[in-house]
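mind reviewing both lines:
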Amino acid sequence: MITPIDPAKIPLSLYVHLPWCVRKCPYCDFNSHQRPAALPEDAYVDALIADLALEAPLALGRPLESIFFGGGTPSLFSARGIGRILDAVRASLVLQPGCEITLETNPGTAEFDRFEGYLAAGVNRISFGMQSFDDDKLKRLGRIHGADEARRAYAMARDAGFDNINIDLMYGLPGQSVAQALDDLRTALALAPEHLSHYQLTLEPQTVFARTPPTDLPDDETLADMLDGCQPLLAAAGFEHYEVSAYARAGRRSRHNENYWLFGDYLAIGAGAHSKVSSADGQVRRRVRQRTPSFFLQQAGSSRAWSEDRDVAPGELGFEFMLNALRLKQGFADELYPERTGRQLQREAGYQRALALGLLQHVQGRVQTSELGFRFLNDVVAGFLPDGPNR
């Protein structure tokens, strides 16, 4: 049974993609590109504003709950450039009071004046791509910063007035021991961030590491020991493990990422950016921009800048919802599934099978994975594919 989706009930966010980095890291599969000799900041901001003019009508008057500047390395852009983008957003869309506005930052590009400027422009959350505090490991990862630079960048953001900071930290790095992974985490915790994204290095397709893998990656047993050792440290420091690789202090979850995980709506602008928006006719629409920055600069403000613009087939929505929502340790409220997919959960064969196998459980009006289901999350989610084994 399909019921109409009401966009008014679905939270809305905005993603802004800034595609350039000082150099491309060998493990990175994001749409990032080495910056040209002269960064075309003003031209790209103009292109973003033109793209926003096409995207904003999809909001249907709904307020933004969060804005996220991702990349690439958004901190390559000046505070003036970030301010221009946010001014255009405020002129086109309504911002919820207290809207969370995050800027991804590479410690190797940090300057105190920029942090002050970002805060003045409206950014209220910084996300640092630290990855490690071991200089040898950072070099192996192709990072442009060292451990001391990471600490200084963090201090600069605090001194500028930021009171909501995330640290991205990897484990399972080339040549990394369990003791080194724990030392990295202890160093991050000593900085007292509000949020930690703690995730395993994976060899993504189309990356340098996938083509020429490091020969000294930790084995599965060592990886398990790293995770088993790190989680008690996070819990003891007051961090809630609320998503597969996300940990937060009370009240400091990433509202932007949580909106993704709960299958909320999000507008998106910039080269390669993906949007997902529920429309007034009850459909879910996806729009994807061309990935190449030079092409985006030429075509922004026109539908020629899009590589995809389509309604999502109703049969795909259950899989997409579960792919996101089951990453959350607390799962999702019963009413969320029909509200955001138009489908009835009780009628889904994948749901009934996962319940019968003890992979999913229903607890006080919420659907969540069991401990077993969390370990075999990919198998649970695969049961919701339109042509999956349970169809």
Residues 348 and 384 are 8 Å apart (CA to CA). The longest strand covers residues 95-105. Residues 332-382 form one domain. The chain has a mean pLDDT of 95.
